[in-house]
Amino acid sequence: MRPSKAAELPIAAELEQAFTRSMAQLPRRPWPAAVAVSGGADSLALAWLLARWAMRAGLEAPIVLTVDHGLSPGSENVAQQVVELASAWQLTAHVLSWRGVKPATNLEAAARAARYHLLGTWCRRHGIAGLYVGHTLEDQAETVLLRLGRGSGVDGLCAMAGVSAFPLPGFSGLSVVRPLLSHPRTALRALLGAQNIAWHEDPMNEDPRFCRVRLRKAWPALIEAGLAPERLALAAHHLSRARAALQSATETFLSRHCSGCDEGLQFDRDAFVALPQEIGLRVLSAVLMQVSGRTYRPRFRRLVPLYNSICSGELGAGRTLLGCRLSPVPRARQRFGAASLWVRGEAPRRRHETVPAGVMENGASEGGSSRSDMGD
Length: 376
Prior knowledge:
This protein has 376 residues and is α/β, with parallel strands linked by helices.
């Protein structure tokens, strides 16, 4: 049953006020902006709220980007419906299309890579500073549980940040923004119902091949056991404070005991060995990423053995990881005495940007995929 006319304004006004508070709490609000809209309830609600917030703030309207992933029948119709709805809201919209043969395995990861590549490429070409996505309170809680199941450390269990770097290399000027992380799905659906806005229910949201779908079906039992989404999101918030403290300690070490040079950088092994292991691992990741230029940390299963070899004095003539070679520094070039360790890039290799198969441009149309990264 739809709310009465008398209830419509309070529902919209209350959520708009909550959204304004959420935007104010973000560490920054990059603009110009695009909003990723799948046609589902969460991302449609975000587009509606963000457009109204921008109008009140005196900012140019966000651009709507929607993907035709080609993974289910009628996906092109859903994309067109998003364009029409955006037009009714006086917003400009573009369809991005992922075409070609789709992988038979690991479809979720391939779809995510295609989606982000296409969204990021469009934003980069058009000077967009922030890609706003509709991740909700429940998405945050599901991410915590999924990463817990993978054995993630502190950073992983912090789950999603309100503002974060774009998840692919080559998009340094673009941020991903998630202003709905404290908003439950029920509130967003109530808003759309009050505004008489229809949304699309993606059949992939019921496909048990995907981990999130299986987890979503387990929510009633999890809530009964005390693992409500609000509690999990709160735990992620607490862990984010711990991560900030660890990062601060890491940066302090790097500023005091690490020195750049033409060949890469050097750091003080004695000071490194004295660190708590968690901070030591972070320092080691940081120097490897800095020298290699990589966006992602090395995996723990490879990082920990390298860390142990340094601490145990078994580094020998040197070891390699993440395109870097870590070795003792010759006496004549030591900056930290006999304890100096060198991190240098390995011989350069030809690197190619990885573009998902089937990604193509078609005038104003490009492509994407399943719902989770748009927030539906």
